[in-house]
Amino acid sequence: VQLVESGGGLVQAGGSLRLSCAASGNIFNINTMGWYRQAPGKQRELVASITRGGSTNYADSVKGRFTISRDNAKNTVYLQMNSLKAEDTAVYYCNAEQVGYDYWGQGTQVTVSS
User: Mind listing the pLDDT tens digit for each residue in 88-100?
Assistant: First the structure.
């Protein structure tokens, strides 16, 4: 499974960005897809995840601001990020779980200027 992310960049505080992650390769039986982030000097943390059936889970820090969605036909997961804050600055990684194995994208930088 290969995961390719896009949509990161530089945005002012209060602005919005939309991340996309397209899965390819042996995509059969991909269940949960999600987004993680890692800021400098910090551990990688879950931002949001979504199951194949559409159940979602969010970190408390992004609830009400970020929305994860998924297009199973396109094997793509999205993260709509609104009301961005400086503390959202991080490298964002796409994740896909397939039969207990995790796949990761290469990461995309999101920088929020205050």
Answer: 999 999 999 998 8
